[in-house]
Amino acid sequence: MFARLVLMELFILSTSRKKINNLKRLEDLVSEQAQRLERLEQENSCLQKTLHQVRQELRLAEEVFAGSVEGTVITDADFRVLRVNPAFTEITGYLPEDVVGKTLCWLLDKDFAREVLISLDEQDHWRGEHQDITRCGIEYVSWLNISSVKNGQGEVTDYIAAFLDLTQEKSRQEENDRYLADLNTAYRRFVPQPFLEYLEKPSIIDIKLGDHVEHSMTVLFSDIIDFTRLSESMNPTDNFKFMNSYLSIMEPIIARNNGFIDKYIGDAVMALFDGTSDDA
To answer: Which of 3, 88, 209, 216 pairs as cysteine with 84 (C-beta 3.0–4.6 A)?
Structure first.
């Protein structure tokens, strides 16, 4: 009887230990799962933050793409157009549906395409002035930049072409050049061109206060003997004709002898010679 009781207690004790061990393993498993769940929640939180940041960057990139004043074209690795921005349409007149899916028309010019492809292969970009025609047939000049986009393995996946219409800028530049040429022509009546050459200045507007050079020159003064009495015997019109005739003779002679007229002083001229005094 005693032995049976002992065996019964041992059985109960053994069963209890097993249950305790099972409970402990279950607690460990629950703790481990809780830790994994916590890690997953942290990772999910990081992913959510990253996703939010990526979405924000994409939104900003989309706003920059849409709002840029530069016409922008995105193509695949074979130069088939994927997207264009509103500035592209504004400059060229072509709508997205006119160009998406088609090969970039700029590369239809074989010589231009060869130049671009060589530059892209060597430098990952090409940039320079480019002439094109709008949908309405109007010629325009643009500053064009084409860049390669590569993946992590260094393979080209896309190309981005951005261009700025320079037509108005070129027109303003040409107008400024014409104005400057006219201005220089007008100032040559008062400031001899050789003065600008000595100062190494292309235009009168490039001269600044204090600009000077040191140069040895011969100075010649020449006037008409008894011009006062002579001029009083002529009317104003004849006086002007006489002076113009006189100066039209003197100026070429001075120029042929390496000189130029610095000042007109009534009936006299002041001339400067860069050569020897014998030229004067």
So the answer is: 88
Asked whether 72 and 88 are in contact (CB, 8 A), the reply is yes
The closest of 83, 53, 80 to 68, measured between CA atoms, is 83
> What's the residue count for the chain?
280
The one-character DSSP state at 97 is H
* Contact between 249 and 255 (Cβ < 8 Å): no
Q: Is the pLDDT of residue 226 over 90?
A: no
* pTM of the model as a whole: 0.53
Say if residues 230 and 245 touch (Cβ distance below 8 Å).
no
| CA 151 to chain CA centroid, nearest Å | 26
Predicted confidence at residue 21, as pLDDT, reads: 66
The helix (run of H) or strand (run of E) holding residue 74 is: strand 71-76
Q: Which residue has the tokens 């600008």?
A: 196
Q: What order do you get walking across the sheet with 139-150 strand by strand?
A: 81-84, 71-76, 156-165, 139-150, 125-133
DSSP H helical segments within the chain, as ranges? 2-67, 86-92, 96-99, 110-123, 167-187, 193-199, 227-232, 236-256
Amino acid making up residue 276: T
Q: Structure tokens of 151?
A: 């993946």
Q: Which backbone phi and psi does 8 adopt, to 5 degrees? A: -65, -40
Structure tokens at 173: 């530049």
